[in-house]
């Protein structure tokens, strides 16, 4: 019970700050959609942003290779209770930071110099105006690339020392910068101010993290002590394949960009907004549970305590699935209404709403394999194995391309997100099978619980689909539309919980017990 309580407390804290971060991110997307719609300028910005986002989100963000490698190595050699880290640990930090700075600085310079050539290769289009806009945006955002890996190291140190708040709340700064600058950007027909705001936001994230790391006792003393340094070797062995794996993930994106550029104007923007909506609940869940679980996995692997790893895997992933499954069915049922409610105003019209809905519906199918894939990937990293996730991701590039090519003529925009869901499922299956060579997680328990949850969700969906179909409301009235969406979504959750209780899924009983204990404590006070 103490283990569960500690994990849940950390998860609730991270969920809370992640909700704030995602909510502000949603406001940012609403502002961009309202001002730029889904057209040439928004496409140019989102095409250009893919490379900076590779650095600051995929590589440097929470769950990225620099964060993951830092946690995996430092969690084994530091004691979070120590007020000042040992000199050896501080030297390792500075060596990692210095080498990362040099590599990312060189990469930033190359991207700046060859931005036009890079985007001409990525964007499969004869629209020179689109490429020129995107190239201009990318030049402005190249400092974001330099900052990405450094932020990832800082995130990893803070989480190793159980400082969960700052790494998960600091992305708000970029969103706030974009919202603030857009508010004063009337007449910005090129989207240049969007790129400037993104760069300022990334700089702010770094400036907020640096004092917090310094407060932990880490002194900034640049060095390149890389010879005969086994801990640094471990970091490189983790970072390099994991960074390549993130790059492979970005190649998926470039494959999608290649096919999206062949569709109607605004297609890539629609895919981006669908992913934003998808990441709002899924990002909160995965971040909330896997961020505190990862240092636990790393520590337990170091102790070779495999029974505890199994316990935390089934507890963490089981709870994730229990919440994620009704969200998936809720998105499928209410996708159009949610997109209309969130985005449809200003330059964002009903045609854009339809495009985003198409993409979102098929992307929602990725929720369950996404949760499983990210969970087992953390276990691989805990075993200091980032090579396997990289090879699995690499093997799926051809599959991604083939699936897009097969579906694109029949499904249009939906083909891109459907192929993403299928590739996520394939990767999750391969990782799960290969992990058994290291540890037997007893998947039978996982699949029995998953089957019960899916049956409960299907029954709940059937009941609420009838209600949705016969709910008469004018969708032009956003208040009534909000009421409809909120009521049906909550009914989805309640009916799912009722069916889950009927199937005797353990998490329902735990939830009821916790609510009872909470009420008793309140009454006792």
Write structural notes for this entry.
This protein is mostly helical and 525 residues long. The chain has a domain at 40-249. Helix content is 82%, strand content 0%. It is built from 20 helices and no strands. The protein has helices at 2-36, 40-59, 65-77, 87-113, 115-122, 128-160, 165-169, 172-183, 192-215, 230-260, 267-303, 306-343, 350-363, 367-382, 387-395, 397-411, 413-435, 443-470, 478-502, 506-524. Helix 11 packs parallel to helix 13 (350-363) and helix 13 (350-363) packs parallel to helix 17. The longest helix is centred in the middle third of the chain and has 38 residues, at 306-343. It is globular. The model is unreliable at 1-5 (pLDDT under 50).
Structure summarized in a few sentences:
With 525 residues, the protein is an all-alpha fold. Helices cover 82% and strands 0% of the residues. It has a domain at 40-249.
